[in-house]
Specification:
By secondary structure, this protein is α/β, with parallel strands linked by helices. It has a single domain, classed as Rossmann fold. The chain has eight helices and seven strands, in the order H-H-H-E-H-E-H-E-H-E-H-E-H-E-E. The protein has helices at about 1-15, 15-20, 30-35, 55-65, 75-85, 100-110, 130-140, 160-165, and strands spanning about 45-50, 70-75, 90-95, 115-120, 140-150, 170-175, 180-185. It has a seven-stranded mixed beta sheet, with helices on both faces. Helix 4 (about 55-65) links the parallel strand 1 and strand 2. Helix 7 (about 130-140) packs across helix 8. The longest helix is centred in the first third of the chain and has 14 residues, at about 1-15. Bound molecules: S-adenosylmethionine. S-adenosylmethionine binds next to helix 2, helix 4 and strand 2.
Amino acid sequence: MQLNDNLMFARTFLRSPKMLGSAIPSSRYLISHLLRHFDWQKAKTVVEYGPGVGTITRQMLRNMSSDAKLLAIESNQELAEHLKENIDDPRLHTRLTSAANVRKALNGMRIDAADYVISGIPFSTIPRKERLTILRNTWKSLRPGGVFLVYQFSGAVLPSLEEVFGPVHQEFELRNVLPARIFRCEKNGAK
Ligand SMILES: C[S@@+](CC[C@H](N)C(=O)[O-])C[C@H]1O[C@@H](n2cnc3c(N)ncnc32)[C@H](O)[C@@H]1O
């Protein structure tokens, strides 16, 4: 299964390197580092941008409660179909669209706001206007106190995150190809 996933991911990367941003899925070290940021009792609605072959998706589903929902937004058709075919879990709702459409996707599920949004999409290759649309719609999609968790291979997105969310907490995970930066943004106050 994992070999199949890795081959699928690498093949898709060769076709769309900018959209994927990495030739291999996240390492187990990066995944466990990211998941430490979740309080699973409070994680009733989780959104994932760019699930790829579902490396992080599967681990989140293992931790989420039976009444929780996971909305996975993937803009690559092959990867979205791969995810639908390979993860059979009623809590998972996969949508083939851009993260920019997160509010519409949540509305379609009759959900007002998410508790957590986690994102591995390569913000550094996304034009500024589209990047800010995604970030502003993410802010609007979170409940007050909700958390936006971003992992990236560069710090290029940081000024845009600060522009939309205010102060950003940063961490690093070196045990990944490439070493990753983790940004934790909280939705505090009105904007
Ligand atoms: C670096 S990969 C991360 C894959 C997986 N989450 C992991 O950690 O192994 C980035 C993913 O984001 C997807 N993606 C890129 N731009 C996107 C967008 N605007 N909306 C949704 N997904 C996007 C890509 O197709 C790819 O699956």
